[in-house]
Write a structure and sequence with these properties.
This protein has 365 residues and is α/β, with parallel strands linked by helices. It is built from 18 helices and seven strands. The chain has two domains: 3-104 and 159-221 and 302-350, Rossmann fold (3-Layer(aba) Sandwich); 226-294, no CATH class.
Length: 365
């Protein structure tokens, strides 16, 4: 079976996503289109505007055949670990083509960038260490080092979708020929038909009409109240000791002490902790991890264990073709979270996914 996979958040699903799904299915001649989708949170640490089952059903209506959940432990991590986790999850498919959106039409150039970063020269490594010692984040340090060593690669990696594409290719190298690649170039059209999810969310919370930018089947009559989440998350961080915070994922280098010593009254106060090393997205991920109790121990568990996936939505006609592939893979396959036994090694990770869904439900308007 010729399978094409897409890694997505659909927060919310828009016309650009519809175009990517249709283009990927057509150009790769896919027998089945599988989406690995973030559950209740995004990679940037935000709560999703709609629950995971609603967003998964949008994907099915757009042409996807199966939507599986990207585990929360991977979602709330850096671009590099987000990509590694997604590729690990998709490894349960065996052979497949990964399709992704990019800001460039040069797939070969992205492949070259991935190979260069994979091999990392001594010059690159020394520059990277130098910038890290100056307090810059890993992503920023890499950009600054690349500006010196390979400005062509650096320019390519100044676009968010290109960054993720390269990270997917780096992570996919571990699986050899099992992963092929396909790209769909994204082109701006001055919001006549296409706009980013970020822009649509801004319009949503401002009460503006964005209907022309999303397919007819996408409805956001029920969405979240960001203020509810901000209150829950701020409270979670405020009530944790430095010792407890030290165990939370994404926290390092004494950040637990800065958080514990700060008297938070709002999420704006939390975001005031940003620095050269800790970007706004990193701080939001830390807040989300603290809210959910996502610890470094759970990250290690996910790294050490076999992959797992949970079905969010499926096209009935594809059940018999796709489910056996996942069931026979070297991983844990669940139709729903309750299928995972309490004795299962990945049960703590499933519980994390369920807790994330409960927080998302609590924050509905």
């Amino acid at each position: 079976m010729n399978i094409t996979a897409i890694i997505a958040e659909y927060n919310p699903f828009h016309n650009g996503h519809l175009k990517q799904l249709r283009t990927a299915k057509r150009e790769t001649n896919a027998d089945a289109l599988v989406v690995c989708m973030s559950g209740s949170f995004t990679e940037r640490g935000d709560l999703c505007v709609a629950d995971k089952f609603t967003r998964a059903n949008w994907a099915i209506q757009a042409g996807a055949d199966l939507v599986i959940e990207l585990p929360t432990v991977y979602t709330l991590s850096s671009a590099q670990n987000f990509a590694k986790g997604a590729i690990k999850t998709l490894s349960m498919l065996g052979k497949y083509t990964l399709s992704f959106g990019t800001e460039t039409e040069e797939l070969e150039g992205l492949s070259m960038a991935a190979e260069f970063l994979q091999s990392e020269s001594n010059d690159m490594s020394n520059l990277l260490k130098g910038y890290l010692s100056e307090g810059y984040s890993v992503a920023k340090s890499r950009t600054l080092a690349l500006d010196k060593v390979r400005p062509d690669v650096s320019n390519m990696l100044k676009s968010p979708n290109n960054i993720l594409a390269v990270e997917y290719m780096k992570a996919g190298a571990k699986y050899g020929d099992n992963v092929q690649y396909h790209q769909v170039a994204r082109k701006p059209d001055d919001m006549k038909k296409y706009a980013s999810s970020t822009k649509i969310r801004e319009m949503l919370f401002a009460g503006e009409d964005f209907s022309k930018l999303v397919p007819d089947f996408v409805s956001l009559d029920e969405t979240i109240d960001p203020n509810k989440y901000n209150t829950i998350s701020t409270y979670s961080m405020q009530t944790m000791s430095a010792e407890q915070l030290r165990d939370i994922a994404n926290i390092s280098e004494g950040m637990e002490n800065r958080i514990a010593k700060t008297d938070f009254e709002s999420m704006d106060d939390v975001l005031g902790l940003t620095s050269k090393r800790y970007t706004r997205s990193t701080i939001k991920r830390i807040a989300a991890c603290a809210t959910l109790g996502l610890t470094k121990e759970l990250v290690s568990l996910a790294d050490e264990e076999k992959p797992y996936c949970t079905v969010l939505a499926v096209r009935p006609s594809k059940r018999k073709a796709l489910f056996p592939i996942l069931a026979e893979s070297d991983g844990y396959f669940f139709f729903k979270a309750s299928d995972c036994e309490f004795s299962s090694p990945v049960r703590p990770l499933i519980d994390l996914d369920e807790k994330a869904a409960k927080v998302q439900k609590l924050c509905k308007r």
